[in-house]
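Following up on my earlier thread - several people asked me to post the actual chain instead of describing it. Fair enough. Here it is, all 290 residues.
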Amino acid sequence: MDGVLVIDKPKGPTSFDVVRQVRSFLRIKKVGHTGTLDPMATGVLPLCLGEATKIAGHILEGDKAYEATVRLGAETDTQDAEGKVVAEAPVPPLSRALLEPALARFRGSFDQLPPMYSAVKVDGKRLYELAREGKDVERAARTVTVHELVLRDFSATELKLSVRCSKGFFVRTLAFDLGRALGCGAHLTALRRTASGPFLLAHALPLAQLQELSAEALAARLVPMEQALSELPALQVSASEAVKVSHGLPLELGEGRAPAGKLRVMSPEGRLLAVAEAAAGRLRYLRVMV
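Reply from S.P.:
Thanks for posting it. Predicted structure:
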């Protein structure tokens, strides 16, 4: 069973809990997710099954989209509703005239400091492990990009936001930083991922329904590896070139045959052979599938 199964993760379990449930139910060893969702978060969680685990890292690079709810007036140690309140402040009278300039700071590319309660590693240890030990360590800010940040609605103490962003972006930290920008503090109270790369919420299977599917229905739900990487340009090779690719041998490209950058290398039959980068008229293999 090879391909990507898109799960609609419920609130509560960790991403690894979902992986374990799917692995146990399907009785397959190779299952991996393509981007962690916090236990509080719900929505799109693509799982790579079987041979598709080889391309998990490339799927992870896709942009993400979220619907978020932010509560103003209180900060928590985890930057979301799962943590304990560590600071409170009055919320100013809200209006679009006040909110839009604050939101504008978080559009485009900028540096974001990962939260202590996160899976980011520092000196080989995950930050959340250090946070649970009561430690607050120095960590490097990372450049992230917010392609779209829309204020959907707001009340006296709550904001509804839509976000489309690059990988590695923390919506929890956006809530925290936005609260600081407004001078009242804030934390995330709800988060739903609506897209991860090419995978949309409309295509996601609620985790609770997994056990109700027949083998045929489940197979129909699997996204083939070729389609899972559909955001990458495709380079179709000849049968003789396919043999070279499958053995990781150098492949010379004529000028203009392939765009520079990462691409899918496809067999004449449309099967994924490799993920590679084209540069200087040659392919550099990132992952050979055969």
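DSSP finds eight helices and 18 strands in the chain. That should answer part of your original question.
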